[in-house]
């Protein structure tokens, strides 16, 4: 049950001063709370015996007020320290969790569900936070505070009455153990269901246009109703066990009261106990109600916190599929990029996705990559991102293996525009500035012109300050592509990778963008994959892929002379382009 505290030992070690102060003051506060009942019992005994005076009564009142003031300020300090630690561990774990996600590569996110990751970053971390705050309070009160009360009852009142009154306590411990095990299992299932619900919501919101286009609103509503019903049932299963805690404790506390009152009256009649001491004892019994409840809350919180921490650690313990080299080799600048017999297979694939790739791209050259859908164009470009475990063969930059280059240095060279553009829920300006932090408007406009987005900018309601919506939903496909291109152009990278990044623009806009790239990227490396061969006619070298293998390579003119796939595709696209121009005219 307390494994969660052991697993959080690093935090308690770091914040030992905070918790030492907080827990010591909590215990001191608990001891101080024993004073008012004892003072009241003494006052009652003086009243019964007739020895009370105004002076003694005034002293009792002032002492009780003084103790209450002391308890007030002490409580403020321990609550600030302990619950402050609760907020601190949540912040530390959330930061660690986010940093871990940022260090993960695509294979991790292919295996993990976004909704489940969100559940772990929110609900689960909040449960861990509660364990470190309220959990530490219940742990202290159910052990130290309860012990202090029991010792006070046994030494200050009557050890015989105390032993009789605590007979029900072992039964509480037994019941809590049984309930705690069930809570841990059911709470884990409930959190998993919450992650599934998050996934469903994310998919529905992201795919709302498709859902409406296929008139699947009612089906999606039913699907969401089913999954929320599952979440409800699993949380209800937790609540049903939760509901046993309080009645069980009340039952045994009530038995303690009954035993204490019955046996206490017997001791008073036999002059083994004064009336004042019986009143004090019953007040102490009343003070024991919270520590007994704390036992139940402790088990509940620890089991929830343990289940949540297990889920969080499950994610944190996943190592990156691609790690930074232990001793990275510094490369001044990316000169030649060379593929030597490179063969690569995705972790989920049963066949080689690239096979025996031999290719050299020198600094300042433009490489065009073409081929059928699924031929391996994107896979070839992604090798430069070093996001997947390396295959066989070699990929070097400036004669250094890409695995030996620091990931930060590698990414600092690259500007990447993928097939599916991701824009953030910010303005056009902020999305473009993501490529160059705090870039002024004149540089932003230059990047926009290079991406041929300048004419579209005037059609947007607020120009550069137009909000693009989540994932750029407020923009068309072509506009999203060109904003993504501008983001890459503004960074002026040494290596620009365009992965079918011009598929949503028309041929004339594509030609304008290609001309801009040729004029502005002199001396820098550019790699372009595309289905439209007009986008790579200008390239220094063109590679044709089929099923991950290079079947043709050369310049545009050389490939036309070969009379293979490239020429066939080029002639077909020329005919289609001619027909399109004829329709327009």
Can you describe this structure?
It comes from Paenibacillus anaericanus. This is ATP-binding cassette domain-containing protein. The chain crosses the membrane at residues 20-40, 60-79, 249-269, 281-301. Its main location: membrane. It is a multi-pass membrane protein. This protein is of the alpha/beta class and 585 residues long. It folds into 2 domains: 3-316, Up-down Bundle (ABC transporter transmembrane region fold); 337-421 and 495-584, P-loop containing nucleotide triphosphate hydrolases (Rossmann fold, 3-Layer(aba) Sandwich). The protein is built from 23 helices and 10 strands. It has helices spanning 3-7, 9-14, 16-32, 35-49, 54-103, 106-111, 114-132, 134-157, 159-165, 169-206, 208-213, 217-269, 275-287, 289-316, 377-382, 407-413, 428-433, 441-450, 454-457, 477-490, 507-520, 556-562, 565-584; strands spanning 337-344, 354-361, 366-371, 392-397, 400-401, 414-417, 495-499, 525-529, 541-546, 549-554. It has a 6-stranded mixed sheet. Strands 2-1-4-5 form a 4-stranded antiparallel sheet, with no helix packed on it. The mean pLDDT is 87.
Give a summary of the structure in a few sentences.
The chain is an alpha/beta fold and 585 residues long. The chain is built from 23 helices and 10 strands. This is ATP-binding cassette domain-containing protein.
CATH superfamily of the largest domain: ABC transporter type 1, transmembrane domain
State the assembly state of the protein chains.
single chain
Question: Helix- and strand-based class?
Answer: alpha/beta
Q: How much beta, percentage-wise?
A: 5-15%
Query: What's the total number of strands?
Result: 10
CATH architecture of the largest domain: Up-down Bundle
Radius of gyration, in angstroms, nearest whole number: 36 Å
- Give a quick account of the main beta sheet: strands, pairing sense, barrel closure: 6 strands, mixed
Spans with pLDDT under 50 lasting ≥5 residues?
none
Q: Report the end-to-end length measured between terminal Cα atoms.
A: 78 Å
- Order of strands, main sheet, comes to 6-7-8-3-9-10
Number of helices, counting only DSSP H or I runs of 4 residues or more = 23
Shape: elongated
Nearest-integer average pLDDT: 87
Give the class-level CATH name of the largest domain. Answer: Mainly Alpha
Q: Give the fraction of residues assigned to helices.
A: 55-70%
């Amino acid at each position: 049950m307390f494994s969660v505290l052991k697993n959080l030992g690093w935090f308690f070690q770091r914040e030992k001063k905070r918790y030492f102060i907080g827990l010591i003051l909590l215990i001191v506060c608990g001891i101080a709370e024993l004073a008012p009942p004892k003072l009241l019992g003494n006052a009652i005994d003086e009243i019964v015996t007739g020895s009370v005076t105004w002076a003694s009564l005034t002293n009792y009142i002032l002492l009780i007020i003084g103790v209450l003031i002391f308890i007030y300020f002490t409580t403020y300090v321990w609550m600030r320290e302990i619950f402050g630690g609760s907020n601190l561990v949540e912040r530390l774990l959330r930061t660690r969790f986010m940093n871990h996600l940022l260090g993960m590569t695509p294979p991790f996110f292919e295996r993990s569900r976004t909704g489940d990751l969100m559940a772990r970053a929110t609900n689960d971390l909040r449960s861990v936070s509660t364990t470190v705050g309220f959990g530490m309070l219940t742990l202290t009160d159910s052990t130290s505070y309860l012990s202090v009360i029991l010792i006070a009852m046994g030494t200050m009142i009557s050890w015989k009455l105390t032993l009789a009154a605590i007979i029900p306590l072992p039964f509480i411990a037994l019941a809590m153990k049984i309930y705690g095990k069930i809570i841990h299992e059911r709470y884990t299932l409930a959190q998993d269901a919450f992650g599934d619900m998050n996934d469903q919501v994310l998919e529905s919101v992201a795919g709302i246009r498709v859902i409406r286009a296929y008139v699947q609103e009612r089906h999606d509503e039913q699907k969401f109703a089913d999954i929320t019903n599952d979440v409800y049932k699993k949380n209800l299963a937790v609540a049903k066990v939760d509901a046993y805690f309080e009645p069980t404790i009340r039952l045994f506390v009530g038995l303690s009261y009954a035993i204490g009152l019955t046996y206490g009256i017997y001791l008073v009649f036999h002059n083994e106990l004064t009336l004042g001491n019986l009143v004090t004892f019953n007040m102490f019994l009343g003070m024991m109600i919270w520590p007994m409840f704390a036992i139940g809350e402790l088990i509940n919180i620890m089991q929830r916190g343990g289940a949540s921490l297990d889920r969080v650690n499950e994610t944190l313990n996943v190592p990156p599929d691609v790690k930074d080299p232990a001793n990275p080799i510094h490369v001044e600048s990316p000169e030649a990029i060379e593929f030597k017999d490179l063969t690569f297979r995705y972790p989920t694939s049963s066949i080689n996705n690239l096979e025996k790739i031999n290719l050299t791209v020198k600094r300042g050259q433009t490489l065009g990559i073409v081929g059928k859908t699924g031929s391996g164009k994107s896979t070839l470009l992604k090798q430069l991102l070093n996001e997947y475990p390396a295959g066989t063969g070699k990929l070097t930059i400036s004669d250094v293996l890409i695995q030996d280059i620091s990931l930060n240095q590698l990414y600092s060279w690259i500007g990447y525009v993928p097939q599916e553009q991701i824009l953030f829920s910010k303005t056009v300006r902020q999305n473009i500035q993501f490529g160059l932090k705090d870039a002024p408007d004149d540089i932003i406009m230059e990047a926009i012109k290079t991406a041929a987005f300048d004419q579209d900018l005037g059609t947007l309601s607020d120009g550069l300050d137009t909000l693009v919506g989540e994932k750029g939903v407020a923009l068309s496909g072509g506009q999203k592509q060109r904003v993504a291109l501008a983001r890459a152009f503004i960074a002026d990278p040494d290596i620009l990778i365009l992965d079918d990044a011009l598929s949503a623009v028309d041929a004339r806009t594509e030609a304008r963008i290609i001309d801009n790239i040729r004029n502005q990227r002199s001396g820098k490396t550019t790699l372009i994959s595309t289905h439209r061969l007009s986008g790579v006619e200008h390239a220094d070298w063109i590679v044709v892929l089929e099923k991950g293998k290079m079947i043709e390579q050369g310049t545009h003119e050389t490939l036309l002379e070969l009379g293979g796939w490239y020429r066939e595709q080029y002639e077909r696209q020329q005919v289609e382009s001619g027909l399109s121009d004829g329709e327009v005219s």
